Amino acid sequence: MDGPVSAPGAAPAEEANRRAADGSDLVARLRRICGDEHVLTDHFQLRTYESDGLLQYRSVPRAAVLPGSAEEVAAVVRACHRAGVPWVARGSGSGLSGGALPVQEGVLIVLTRLRRILEVDLPNQRVVCEPGVTNLAITAAVAPSHFFPPDPSSQIVCSIGGNVAENSGGAHCFKYGFTTHYVCGLEVVLPDGTVVQLGGKELDVPGYDLHGVFVGSEGTLGVATRITVRVIPSPESVRTLVAFFDSPAHAGHAVSAIVAAGVVPGAIEMMDRLSIDASEQMAHAGWPKDAGAALLVELDGPESECEARFDEVRRLCDEAGAAGVVVPRDAAQRDVFWKMRKAAFPAMGRISPHYYVQDGVIPRTRLPEVLEQIDALSREYDLRVGNVFHAGDGNLHPLVCYDGEKPGDAQRAEELAGEIVLACVQLGGSITGEHGIGVDKKRYMPKMFAEPDLAAFQKLRCAFDPDGLANPGKVMPTPRLCGEVPGPYRQHPLERAGLAERF
Amino acid sequence: MEQASLQRVAPGSAEEAAEILREAGQGRRHVRLRGAGTKLGWGRPGLPVDLELSTERLDAILEHNEGDLTAVVEAGVTLERARETFARAGQMLPLDPPDGGGATIGGVLATADSGPLRHRHHGARDLVLGVRVALPDGTVARAGSKVIKNVAGYDLGKLMTGAYGTLGLVAEISLRLHPLPLQTVTAVVRGAAPGLVAGAASKLAHRPVEAEALDVRWEDGAGAVLARFGGASAGDQARAALDTLTAAGLEGEIVDDDDELWDRQREAQRAPDGIVVRVSTTQHGVGDALAAAHHAGGRAVGRAALGLVWIALPQQAGAGAVTALRERLAPARCVVLDAPAAVREAVDPWGEDDRAKLLLMRRVKERFDPHRTCNPGIFAGGI
What we know:
- The structure holds 2 protein chains of 2 kinds.
- In chain A, 37% of the residues lie in helices and 18% in strands.
- By secondary structure, chain A is an alpha+beta fold.
- Chain A is globular, with a radius of gyration of 24 Å.
- Chain B is an alpha+beta fold.
- Chain B has 3 domains: 1-180 and 356-383, Uridine Diphospho-n-acetylenolpyruvylglucosamine Reductase, domain 3; 185-257, Alpha-Beta Plaits (2-Layer Sandwich); 266-346, Alpha-Beta Plaits.
- Chain B has an 8-stranded antiparallel β-sheet with strand order 14-11-13-12-16-17-15-18.
- The two termini of chain B are 18 Å apart.
């Protein structure tokens, strides 16, 4: 898999001097910083961390460290910088793009011990926490009066640090926005080990919006060690319905009508028949077996507004040809309906030995076209594709089913999934709406961005990480060095020196 | 500072703009980027410039995708024209900073200026889906996308928003639009103590209401809270808000025809001949900011939930009044916006910056604009 591709700028002689000055190897240094029990080098232990949520990529790091404080994180990063060793930060490991895939021979910085909520400042509607705190724990800390809107399906386990890295979304982001809309301050350890405060509890702090830039940078600009987020009052009222249609295209008409009427639902989620079938086996919601598509619409907000809009949404679904509309009779049934949606990925495992989760975005009005293309691809490759959408914002999650035991099937599934994101780009969309580029999608970056665009990205990256030590080999399609003119391939100093000696 | 010999160019495309910047950089010439020129006095006085690059010819609304609630515009499109265009489809770009005349979307973005709608719809940074930027190295780079959800690549839109044109020229912007509320209704209450006014607004900000805007105001020894509602039940929501605000000890009424109220709020963010200081504080600090405005003999408007307050100092105030305000409100950051050149030379409009952040900002500047071609010296830290 991915080796240590990105290059620290230092020359070998300089490297040797550094080591001499250091006088000890990196692992010993890491042990001094974090304590022996928090530095793992045993291959068997390290295998726990070989993948994130995307299991087809595996890579075992040379060492994993579990720092217990922001200060320890800074010391670890500083030690790596001095040794010229690349590192990858990891939260809960639930990412779906291989963003936390370790670099072989590098250090994996595992942030799961940093799970303290440092301050709940409800009068100012802010929470300050460490990166390992789970997404749901933030809402729990301010409930019931307030909540933290970004709600990825993995919110029980995923960490806020990971949400910051990926700019995570979720079902409610059509109305409420993404992680980036709610992060107002970050304490960041830069790749040279210095600590910088970006933003704060206040808005419009003078200077470049570097916390805005950091959110979604996939761990390539540094490690966030303290995160300040905005929380908002919980909605007074929530009204949910599910409408069934012949096909996703028909359900798409209902979505368009709802949006055109000026209604902004808290969530508007679509599932196709295959994904309904799969989820039924897990959630048992009793949805009709013959439905071609289900549209889960949730209005939230002031009681009076929900009341006024709910009947309108119902009518618009009817007018768009809904075969039936069901309103959950109580909170328990509403939870079951949401379980149908949130279980859609794992549920696919009930009807297919393996599946590949894709993440693409289209302008919402192009839904019928992309559905046709997915359908055609499914037939061409002779693989089933389930579809789950965040319908409001045009974010598709096609689930490509395959049998890993069948030779070539996995590769064809991946190819098919790749064709789908390329179709999204051709329709004016994006190769990823919320899962990130990581290692998985960097090869598609040139389909969405031209060379000058990538060069501009690299300028930013080099400002933060001139030595290329932070999560190298992710996001950018090809490894690039900072501050050097392009030329013939030069051996990476780490490759030449052989990292093993350093440990 | 107007210079008589200033050469002025108006490129017709991002590519032309990039070429102008590249050539200027090669000749070590400094370029001022400008839109309508409504905020040219903001920031530090800066280094003398040799060339002025205007966005006046970059004035096309390239796309308005009604069904997708998105648009793509060139930087020189005025807010007013964009507003009219989107309104015809029942939509809006919820970016409503004070607009003394012809403010362009590019200029609003560069300064990250904002207005009352920020309460509900976030700031310029959050409405930008993508940008095309003419960079000083002569290239044109695109970042982001035209769809409302996208995490591919770095978010250069955020880097450019509020960068005061110091990293390049944003030539084209993809934007998220929102439905225009069918009707708006505002609850207005008045009070004679800054703490009472800010406290009542904060109380409302903690209630499960969905206000389009939630502002405070302080002028001539009296204050007000304004809460604007939209949507199908705007009237009901405003009446409920009025109950909350009067329960906090203030008196007021419901205003149906409320446009003028909000125009006044926006206008109070500017003082063409005076000094305006933008205070970045917490929600809890809004009362202190209003009290500081009162103490200084000035007026203030603010976004009560967001902790942003614009204080207009009295006509006779000078640099000393800015310093006094900063001392009183520390650690809240006070940025000088409108001010006579003498004041902007006497006090740093941006205030002190954290050293580590400044170093990082300089590194960003060096990567994007190594010869300091674009708007040199006007930004925080003298960038």
